[in-house]
Design brief:
By secondary structure, the protein is mainly α. Helix 1 runs antiparallel to helix 6. The longest helix has 30 residues. It starts with 10 loop residues before the first helix and ends in a 23-residue tail after the last helix. The chain is about 55% helix and about 0% strand. The chain is built from 7 helices and no strands.
């Protein structure tokens, strides 16, 4: 017997998504450990470089933490639904279909090529049929990007030299 949650998300699809998000999160944590072991220093110069060591580490952190937070959200939806409290899910089920922002935000910071665990995690998530096409397109962008795109150096504000000083 298939139980429906809110707006036609069924328990089986949700559990499948939870398993994929859990494994993707584990893979993102594996990549994070590799980047962290490289010992990047959080200096201003490194922080401003798209794909630099600090931005890559931060991107990996965002993806790992984002997956864990999203898994918690999916578990909350599943818990309410299986307890017969589907009315408490509210808009969470629809929001779950949009995925989590840490994929694009984190992935856009990271040096290319992405580490294998990151790619495997993204491919796991791409196989989940719960997600909207827009979220899948964002993941595809991260997978296929040739370089990091954030932060965009053109957006940096560089202070003007003080009067009487030359740079």
């Amino acid at each position: 017997m298939e139980r429906e949650i809110d707006i036609d998300i069924d328990i089986d699809r949700l559990v499948t998504a939870m398993r994929a998000v859990d494994e993707a999160g584990r893979l993102f944590e594996e990549a994070l450990a590799v980047y962290g072991a490289r010992g990047p220093k959080r200096t201003t110069e490194d922080f401003n470089v798209a794909g630099g060591p600090v931005q890559t580490l931060q991107g990996a952190e965002e993806m790992a933490l984002g997956a864990r937070r999203f898994l918690t959200e999916l578990a909350l939806i599943a818990g309410y639904a299986t307890a017969g409290l589907g009315d408490r899910v509210g808009g969470r089920a629809e929001a779950a279909r949009t995925g989590f922002a840490a994929i694009r935000g984190g992935g856009s910071r990271m040096a290319r090529p992405l580490l294998d665990p990151t790619l495997r995690g993204l491919r796991l998530l791409l196989a989940v049929d719960l997600f909207d096409p827009a979220f899948k397109a964002e993941m595809e962008e991260v997978v296929h990007a040739e370089q990091a795109t954030y932060p965009d150096p053109s957006t940096f504000r560089i202070p003007a030299p003080a009067a009487g000083r030359t740079p």
